[in-house]
Amino acid sequence: MTAAPTTDGVLVDRYGRVARDLRVSLTDKCNLRCTYCMPAEGLPWLAGPQLLTDEEIVRLVRVAVRRLGVTEVRFTGGEPLIRPGLPGIVAAVAALEPRPRISLTTNGIGLARLAPALRAAGLDRVNVSLDTLDRDRFSRLTRRDRLADVLAGLAGAAAAGLTPVKVNSVLMRGVNDDEAPALLRFALAQGYQLRFIEQMPLDAQHGWDRATMVTADEILTALRGEFALTADPTERGAAPAETWLVDGGPARVGVIASVTRPFCGACDRTRLTADGQLRSCLFATDESDLRGALRAGADDDEMARRWRTAMWGKRAGHGIDDPAFLQPARPMSAIGG
Ligand code: SF4
What is the DSSP string of 95-141? Predict the structure, then answer.
């Protein structure tokens, strides 16, 4: 346990973890309606005035990069590609000294069209969500017939040099859990890095059920039916994904097993929501309001102090296995990956 929040330097918490990876949600809106994320009718979206402006986002990222030791910035949503100012925000963040690595988590809709401009603005790489290669199943899972757009988005990202192109897949029992080998075959053929993600209790409907979650062990067993998986000698560090060499490598596959193999002990993430709230953890049930301070005229010193204080209180882990576990009120669609 460290003594108290530092008055300068990095974002350290009371367990000694240092946050270097900032996840910024640019919107809570999305153009898909994934069944494990939100209802068909969508959600009561954040009102315009609640949302941080492009300038406010850039200012907060600048504080994080220049004063708090953040070296990685990941833009998420909802769906970040629907934010009109995205290229400008990326360009402003890419101009920061020291320059952070900049990535984006997206559902891929519109990526084929936007990839060249985002690359030119300074985006380094992308994570694209893809849970199935079957058109009908995609339409049932997302309630939109847009598989072709996602596949075009992946190809467009690779062509634009937004590499490595990472693919995030969530498997659900009896829905798409039979597709693990096919998804890996696809990723290997295209040169994408595939990571399976255990479904987490962060859906807006609060309907998550551990029994329908496909575990890391089950995913690995399914893959081993077709591929030889061996331990990846590369240092994992704070990376959420545990990785394996496929058929001796160099291709790899990853599993982000937040529920059955939590990696909170090495967590280096800090999160900013689209309405300017600071979250120390994906599963935090409390938030710190940076937007209010910002709009009340607080200077960068004050923003940095608040950020450090909020991260100092970060919990040891998500606590999903605790009998007292409480799912956060804010859904994943308003937190971001
Ligand atoms: S659950 Fe929270 S503490 Fe654990 S890895 Fe995720 S963000 Fe970090």
Answer: TSSSPPEEEEEE--TTHHHHHHHHHHHT--EEEEE---S-HHHHHHH
> Atom 7, ligand 1: which residue's CA is nearest?
281
The pLDDT assigned to 7 comes to 56
The arithmetic mean of pLDDT across residues 160-168, rounded, is 97
pLDDT-based confidence at residue 188 (cuts at 50, 70, 90):
very high
What is d(CA 104, CA 90) in angstroms, rounded to the nearest whole number? Answer: 10
Between CA 38 and CA 205 the distance in angstroms is: 6
Would you call the peptide bond into 164 cis, given omega within 30 degrees of 0 as the criterion?
A: yes
Letter for the amino acid at 320? I
* CA-closest residue to ligand 1 atom 1: 318
Structural domains in the chain, CATH included, are 21-335 (3.20.20.70)
Q: Give the SS3 label for residue 242.
A: strand
Q: What is the pLDDT of residue 1?
A: 47
Ligand 1 geometric centre to CA of 282 (Å): 6
Q: Residue 210 corresponds to which tokens in the numbers above? A: 């551990």
DSSP state of 204: T
- pLDDT(3) > 90: no
**Ligand 1: distance of its center to the CA of 109 in Å?**
27
Q: Token pair of 268, please? A: 């280096």
Pairing of strands 72-76, 21-25: parallel
